[in-house]
C-alpha cells in the first residue's frame, strides 16, 4: 500500500505539480504578466453570476474599463444574456472549463472536452470562439503545457483571496492598491458559488474595485483586455530561451523573498523602482566625498533597484546608451523622493551614507556618489559572477557585451554622504531633541545632469540583491 501511494505521488507530481510550478515560476507557455506603461488587466473568474456580474458590468462601464471574463461553461449556458452583454460592452470572454474542477483530477481528453464544450456554448451565444483559457485554480497538467492546441493559457501576476468574505472590503482595497501597477494581471471573482468561495464575497470585491478604479484614473492607469495586453506588449520574457527564462524566473522570485526577508522599504510604491533598508556598514574604512570616514559599524542606507523593473528596462532598451538614459531618468525621480523620506525620519537621518554595489563605471558621480573598489575576496568575486550572469540576460547587447568589455564589468562600491544628498535636494536633517546632529538650513542648487548621456557606462543593476 505504501509503495502504491508513493507511485501515485510520483505520477501526480509529474502530471500536474511540476508543470504547474514551471508555468507559475518561469511563465513557461503561459501569459501571466504584461509590461505596459499605463495599462493593467482586470480578469474575473467563475461567472457569469446573475447577482454580481450585472453590477460589475455597470461599474466597469462607469469607469470606462475593459476586462476579461473567464467563464464557467455551465454558468454561461444558464445565463446566456450575461455572456451576450459582456461581449456587447467590449470585454473579452475566456474559458474556465465547463465545470469548476481542477485539471489535476482530469484526464487530458476530459480537459479537452471541457474546453471545447465551453467554447461551443460561447460561440452559440455571441458567434465567436474564444482562444484564451484559464484552468481552475491555475493548475495546468503536463499535456496542457506540452501542446497548447487552439487556446492560449492565461494565468495572473497577482491574486488577492477575494473569494473569502472575511477578508473584508477595506483589506481587499489595500491589497489591490498595493499592486496597482502597469502590466499587472489581476485575478478577481464575480461569483461566490464555487467550491471554497463565500457566496457574498463578491460584494467586497465590488467595493474594493471601485476604489481601485478611482485611484487608477488618478494615476493615469487604465484597465485593458488580456488579448490587447498580449498584442501590445508580448512580454519579453516569453521570447527568451528556456535557460534564460529559468534565470530570470529565479532572479525575480529571489527579489520577492529578499524584500520580505530583509524588510526593504519602497521609496515610491506607485513606481517601485528603488527600495532601501537601514543597516550597519561591515567593510573596511572608506573616505567619503565630504572627507568624513565611513567605518565599520556606522549606519548606512542600502539601496536596491527592483529586479523586475530593471529587467523590463534592459529588455526594452535597444542599446547601452538607451538603457543608461532610462536608468538615469528613474534615478532622477527616485533620489529626490528618498531625500524627502530621510528628511522626515529621525532614524534614517542618523545614517552616515547611502550605500550600494554597482557595475557602473561612470555615471554615479553625476548624482554625487563616489565610486570605490571592492576589496578582493569571496564577496567581490561572487558578486561579479552574479552580476555578469544577469547582465547577459537583461543587457541589450547580452553575452556579446560580456565578451568584448569584460574587463570593465567589475562590481564597485558606491557611496554618498546622507548630508550631501539632502543638500543637493534642498532638504534638511530633521530637528528633534533625540537627534544627534544639527544643521543649519541649506539652500543649494538642485541636482543637474550633463545633457549628454552617451558617456555613461551602465551594465546591470545600480545595486543588486
Automatic annotation (TrEMBL):
The chain crosses the membrane at residues 6-27. Coiled coil: none annotated. Pfam families: Polysacc_deac_1, YkoP. It comes from the Bacteria. Gene3D superfamilies: Glycoside hydrolase/deacetylase. The keyword Glycosyltransferase does not apply. Residues 38-224 form the NodB homology domain. Residues 427-465 are annotated as: Disordered. Keywords: Membrane, Transmembrane, Transmembrane helix. This is NodB homology domain-containing protein. It comes from Paenibacillus pseudetheri. The lineage of its organism: Bacteria, Bacillati, Bacillota, Bacilli, Bacillales.
Amino acid at each position: 500500500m505504501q509503495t502504491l501511494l508513493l507511485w501515485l505521488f510520483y505520477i501526480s507530481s509529474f502530471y500536474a505539480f511540476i508543470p504547474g510550478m514551471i508555468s507559475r515560476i518561469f511563465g513557461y507557455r503561459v501569459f501571466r504578466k504584461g509590461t505596459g506603461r499605463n495599462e493593467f488587466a482586470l480578469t474575473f473568474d467563475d461567472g457569469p453570476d446573475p447577482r454580481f456580474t450585472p453590477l460589475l458590468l455597470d461599474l466597469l462601464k462607469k469607469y470606462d474599463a475593459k476586462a476579461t471574463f473567464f467563464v464557467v461553461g455551465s454558468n454561461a449556458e444558464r445565463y446566456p444574456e450575461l455572456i451576450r452583454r459582456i461581449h456587447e460592452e467590449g470585454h473579452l470572454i475566456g474559458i474556465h472549463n465547463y465545470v469548476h474542477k481542477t485539471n489535476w483530477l482530469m484526464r487530458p481528453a476530459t480537459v479537452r472536452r471541457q474546453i471545447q464544450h465551453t467554447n461551443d456554448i460561447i460561440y452559440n451565444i455571441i458567434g465567436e470562439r474564444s482562444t484564451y483559457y484559464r484552468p481552475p485554480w491555475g493548475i495546468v497538467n503536463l499535456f496542457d503545457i506540452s501542446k497548447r492546441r487552439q487556446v492560449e493559457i492565461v494565468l495572473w501576476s497577482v491574486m488577492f483571496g477575494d473569494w473569502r468574505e472575511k477578508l473584508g472590503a477595506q483589506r481587499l482595497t489595500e491589497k489591490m492598491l498595493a499592486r496597482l501597477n502597469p502590466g499587472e494581471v489581476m485575478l478577481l471573482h464575480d461569483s461566490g458559488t464555487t467550491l471554497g468561495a463565500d457566496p457574498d464575497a463578491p460584494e467586497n470585491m465590488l467595493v474594493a474595485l471601485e476604489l481601485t478604479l478611482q485611484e487608477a484614473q488618478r494615476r493615469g492607469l487604465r484597465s485593458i483586455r488580456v488579448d490587447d495586453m498580449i498584442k501590445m506588449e508580448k512580454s519579453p520574457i516569453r521570447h527568451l530561451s528556456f535557460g534564460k527564462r529559468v534565470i530570470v524566473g529565479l532572479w525575480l522570485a529571489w527579489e520577492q523573498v529578499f524584500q520580505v526577508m530583509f524588510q526593504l522599504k519602497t521609496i515610491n510604491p506607485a513606481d517601485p523602482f528603488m527600495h532601501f533598508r537601514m543597516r550597519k556598514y561591515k567593510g573596511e574604512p572608506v573616505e567619503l566625498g565630504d572627507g568624513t570616514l565611513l567605518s565599520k559599524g556606522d549606519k548606512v542606507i542600502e539601496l536596491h533597484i527592483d529586479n523586475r523593473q530593471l529587467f523590463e528596462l534592459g529588455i526594452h532598451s535597444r542599446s547601452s546608451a538607451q538603457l543608461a538614459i532610462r536608468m538615469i531618468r528613474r534615478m532622477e525621480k527616485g533620489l529626490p523622493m528618498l531625500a524627502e523620506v530621510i528628511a522626515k525620519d529621525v532614524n534614517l537621518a542618523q545614517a552616515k551614507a547611502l550605500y550600494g554595489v554597482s557595475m557602473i563605471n561612470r555615471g554615479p558621480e553625476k548624482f554625487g556618489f563616489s565610486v570605490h573598489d571592492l576589496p578582493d575576496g569571496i564577496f567581490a568575486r561572487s558578486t561579479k559572477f552574479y552580476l555578469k550572469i544577469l547582465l547577459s540576460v537583461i543587457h541589450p547587447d547580452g553575452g556579446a557585451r560580456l565578451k568584448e568589455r569584460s574587463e570593465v564589468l567589475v562590481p564597485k562600491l558606491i557611496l554618498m554622504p546622507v548630508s550631501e544628498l539632502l543638500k543637493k535636494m534642498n532638504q534638511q536633517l530633521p530637528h528633534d531633541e533625540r537627534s544627534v546632529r544639527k544643521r543649519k538650513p541649506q539652500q543649494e542648487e538642485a541636482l543637474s545632469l550633463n545633457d549628454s548621456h552617451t558617456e555613461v557606462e551602465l551594465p546591470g543593476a545600480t545595486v543588486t540583491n
